[in-house]
Amino acid sequence: MNKVKIKTKKMMCGHCQTAITTALSAMDGVSGMDISLADLEVTVTYDPEKTSSEEIRQTARKVTKIEDQEM
After folding, report:
1. How many domains does the chain have?
2. Which domain holds residue 13?
3. CA distance 30 to 9
4. Less CB within 10 Å around the terminal CB: N or C of the chain?
5. What DSSP state is assigned to residue 51?
6. CATH, residue 13
7. Angle between helices 53-63 and 14-25 in degrees, nearest 10
8. How far apart, in whole angstroms, are the C-alpha atoms of residue 42 and residue 44?
9. Backbone angles phi, psi at 35, to 5 degrees
10. Sequence-ordered alpha helix ranges (H) in 1-71
11. 20: number of CA atoms within 13 Å, CB side?
């Protein structure tokens, strides 16, 4: 399993958290995530044989503005 950390510029409410959780959870290969509204970041655990960090970032971009850092 790999992890990607996504720093967001905009994720300030429960609606934002729900939207990103729904979008990323629907992806094949995503096995978990930790969302911190206080730190404006999402850490996603995924199977690199089923998806990539770039696909995860692209999906997250559809929901909110992000900056990201690979872990």
Report:
1. 1
2. 2-70
3. 22
4. N
5. -
6. 3.30.70.100
7. 140
8. 6
9. -110, 130
10. 14-25, 53-63
11. 30
Residue with tokens 């995924």: 46
The single residue listed with the structure tokens 């690979």 is 70
Tokens of 53: 């960090």
Among the listed residues 48, 66, 49, the one whose alpha carbon sits nearest the alpha carbon of residue 57: 66
Look up residue 65 and give its two tokens.
């503005």
The per-residue pLDDT for range 4-52, each reduced to its tens digit, is 998 877 666 777 788 889 999 999 999 999 988 888 889 999 999 999 9
Kindly tell me the burial class for residue 27, based on how many C-beta atoms sit within 10 Å of its own C-beta (0-12, 13-18, 19 or more).
middle
What is the structure's pLDDT at 66? 59
